[in-house]
Design brief:
- The protein is an alpha/beta fold.
- A five-stranded parallel beta sheet has the order 2-1-3-6-7, with helices on both faces. Strands 8-9-10-11 form a four-stranded antiparallel beta sheet, covered by helices on one side.
- The radius of gyration is 18 Å and the shape is elongated.
């Protein structure tokens, strides 16, 4: 899961980013309104942790723009304790949750995973497609009754596709979601091809009835066989 932390307190940005990366998330940051706006315009995120008071503008304006554009990005408003107006305004504009500062990292992680489950998988603890299930919180992948050991990036690739079955996914968009914003500056995508090849092999060997197919000239698509 790829997260954008929009926060102007440098110490909090560093602490939050480090903690979320330890939990296995891809984390990008923005410390002012303009930078956040630029990143949201160019890149896609699964979840945005959005402070309201930012240098150069209000986080609520960023939220309003996301919703007006019909973006499916989950947004958690993070604001000073007791700012009831921020909470009411943010939720009214379509934020998925609200967390008051100061907060415990464990609660933040739980909130992120909760909004992801609610928006993408009707509240279930695992994503399922065909005979394959993927549990984001435990890192476990099952094909039928059998566990399939995957490396971290293989798991992240499968997690990305299993939430978008049947959709044609551009390889650069997928790589950005799994490796981070600046992967679009890479000279080639050989590392993506290698991870994809290994993931496909492991799924096939385990008897999965789904596969990630290449769509010539476009990218990839997760389909049932």
């Amino acid at each position: 899961m790829k997260i954008l932390v929009v926060e102007d307190e440098a110490a909090l940005v560093e602490l939050t980013s480090a903690a979320l990366r330890k939990e296995g998330f891809i984390v990008e940051t923005a410390m002012d309104y303009a930078t956040a706006g630029e990143k949201l315009a160019v890149y896609s995120y699964d979840c945005v942790l959005l402070d309201v008071m930012l240098p150069g503008g209000s986080g609520l304006d960023l939220l309003r723009k996301l919703k007006e554009e019909g973006r499916r990005t989950n947004v958690i408003i993070v604001s000073a304790k007791g700012s009831i107006d921020d909470k009411v305004s943010g939720l009214g504009l379509g934020a998925d949750d609200y967390l008051a500062k100061p907060f415990h990292i464990a609660e933040l992680v739980a909130r992120i995973r909760s909004v992801a489950r609610r928006s993408s998988n009707a509240g279930n603890f695992a994503f399922r497609y065909g005979n394959v299930s993927l549990e984001p919180e435990t890192g476990r992948v099952m094909v039928g009754e059998n566990s399939v050991p995957l490396l971290k990036k293989e798991f992240d690739i499968l997690a990305y596709f299993i939430q978008r079955p049947g959709h044609i996914i551009d390889k650069a968009v997928m790589a950005e979601a799994v490796w981070g914003d600046h992967i679009d500056q890479a000279d080639d995508f050989q590392f993506v091809y290698a991870q994809m090849k290994n993931l496909r092999r492991k799924l096939a060997a385990a008897g999965a009835d789904i596969e990630i197919k290449s769509v010539y000239g476009f990218g990839y698509k997760l389909v049932e066989k």
